[in-house]
Amino acid sequence: MGQDITLKEKSQRTSILKPVISKITTVFKQEKMFESLKKLGITVLSITLFIGLWHLGSKALYNKEANFTIAKALEDQGQAAADAVQACIASGDSSCQPNTLPSPSQVWTSLLALIDDYYIIKQDKIDDAIENAPLNAEIRQFNIDNAAQIAAGDIEARQEIEYTGRSSFLDIVVTSIKTVFAGFLLALFIAVPIGIIIGLSPSLRNAFNWFIQIFKPVSPVVWYLLVFMIVKTLYIGNSSDNSFVISFISVGLCAMWATLVNTAMGVASVDQDYINVAKVLKLGTFQKIFKVILPSSLPLIFTGLRITLSVAWMVLIAIELLAQSKGLGLFVWEEFNNGANDSNAKILVAMFVIGIIGFLLDRLMLTVQNAVSFNKVEGV
Amino acid sequence: MNAINTKQNLATDNVIFNSSNDVMLDLSELKKVYPTPKGDYIVLENLNLKIMKEEFVTIIGHSGCGKTTMLSMIAGLNPISGGSIAVLGKGIKGPGPDRGVIFQSPSLMPWMTTLENVMLGVNQVFGHVSKKQRQDIAKYYLHKVGMEDSFNKKAKELSQGMQQRVGIARAFAIKPKVLLLDEPFGMLDSLTRGELQDILIEVWNKEKITAVMITHDVDEAIFLADRVVMMTSGPRAKIGDILDINFDRPRTRKSVLDHDDYYTYRKHLIDFLEH
Question: Which chain B residues are Cβ-neighbours of A276 within 8 angstroms?
Fold first, then answer.
């Protein structure tokens, strides 16, 4: 009996405590939520402020150009022409709109238009595929039937018919991301191993120093030309499109220097205490590199890789433009030359897309860095 | 009176340990020179010291007198300019796991767990035994230093004191012939320092590994050592005096503090340092 009572008492006591505990946790959670709400609020506020200023700025520029056009019409052709121009501008007709910094709403409309365009092109591709299906089946059958002769080189394999229409904005973005990733991987596989090797040996570091110092500041345009010279020759006699290869190699070579320098510095500046431990334990070269030197220089290597990735995005536009690779760079350039009414707005859409993807890639790198490296880094 | 006593002790020591078989570490005519633009700077000169097997020697002296230089020369991390260092009669060639070092800063690899840190050395020295046995060795020493609950904690998550415990485990686990300690507790607060001294002496009592320890702390020097070696101030530093500590082992802090000779030893050391 007595035991029963104590049990009951105990459960009562915990039941008294429960609401208190839950209240404490909710207060704690609320406080945390308040913190993040505050953060979010500040971000939203600053975005609104930015869009507002942008709106006012673009409006002022628009008015300036419109007034100038009207004044010019008045001066050159008289009152009637000026009235006609004014009416034309007010009506929103695309033939006489001032061509200046687009407003936020125009950019938004362009974004929506590009998204619609994506669906239209998608449908086009499907239609195209259906239309070409019988012909493609025939070609495939031909290739299968003559497989032996094709392998022997007597007959050339026939190419299937592919969609050759314009690419959608999404295709363009994907091409750019592919280019940057390929370039980034190239930079990673060149710069990290070389960085480690020259970091380990002071004499190699001296030997490479002039090379790094001279090539580091070379502009993306020059890198493109250099790569173009080499790849063009390598592709002689090959009619396939080499613009992607040229652009990713140029991006990689242009962006790899930060990783190279940071890796070398990270490896060269490993804490002497760790090196002493490795010496006292007589670790072999392999173990010394993989158990001590590399883990200890990972933070700096990753800092380099993050810079490389952001530089890769930055130089991408210039290089794609020159290489005529169907990415964002070419898109921006074509829109600029196009001079259509919504070209400027589309350029700004591309700008924001580049910025946002760059930001996301940096976050991705930060997450990877914090997962594998021993010291945690806060993103700025 | 006291000084005469120690000299006599020294004399008897030499008689007892006359056979060269008992010498673990032999420094003879050791010299260290750093070339500078203004000419050579001689840190150590004519330094002679014999350390016996199973002996715990502490080295005390003013900052910058070359204690650490001497220790890193024994460890093989710093080249010798003259004279010789021999372990069991064989001259040393560079660093090696026969001379374990506990550094002033714990120097654990921050990206490894405590167990991995100890295993790094154990794998190297006991490469011939099974992985299970190696882990057992590492765990045994971590247990000895009171870190049995933190095998899988990353080293950077530990406090300085905890890290130095792992440093002690790492050094003992590779079963060196000589243990070199470079002011291992210098960076710790006095409470933690006392704790770690107890742990060190407890592990040492079991293993009896010949130990050479640098310290600035007179009490620490007396509590831990069989002999306290006093170094003269540099340049051209050498051994100034040697004091035998004739306390029984195992010692406790209380028995040491209560001993009649404690304050005589202490006075001797302080007189030397303030001279």
Answer: 75, 77, 95, 101, 103, 107
CATH superfamily of A168-372: MetI-like (1.10.3720.10)
Nearest CA in chain A to B156: A374
The residue segments making up the domain with residue B27 are 2-98+176-274
B99 vs A: CB within 8 A: yes
Give tens-digit pLDDT for A211-254: 899 988 888 889 999 999 998 888 887 777 788 889 999 999 99
pLDDT digits (tens, 9 = 90+) for B177-218: 999 999 998 888 888 888 899 989 988 988 889 999 999 889
Residues in contact with A47: Cβ distance below 8 Å, sequence separation at least 6, in sequence order: none
User: What CA–CA distance (Å, rounded) separates B219 from B263?
Assistant: 10
Is residue B142 domain-resident?
no
Q: What is the mean pLDDT of residues A304-333?
A: 89
Residues in chain A, overall count: 380
- CATH code at B53? 3.40.50.300
CA separation, residue A379 to residues A255, A293, A363, B156 (Å): 21, 25, 7, 21
Looking at the DSSP assignment, which residues form a beta bridge with residue B32? B44
Residues 6+ apart with CB under 8 A from B161: B188, B192, B195, B196
Cβ–Cβ contact B94 with A under 8 A? yes
B184: contact with A, CB 8 A cutoff? no
- The answer for residues whose C-beta is within 8 angstroms of residue B103's C-beta and 6 or more apart is A273, A276, A277, B167, B182, B184
Place of tokens 């091409």: A175
> Looking at beta carbons, which residues of chain A come within 8 Å of B76?
279-280
Task: Give domain limits for chain A.
Answer: 2-93, 103-166, 168-372
Number of domains in chain B: 1
Separation of CA A50 from chain center: 22
Residue A222 main-chain phi, psi, to 5 deg: -65, -40
Evaluate whether residue B154 is within a structural domain: no
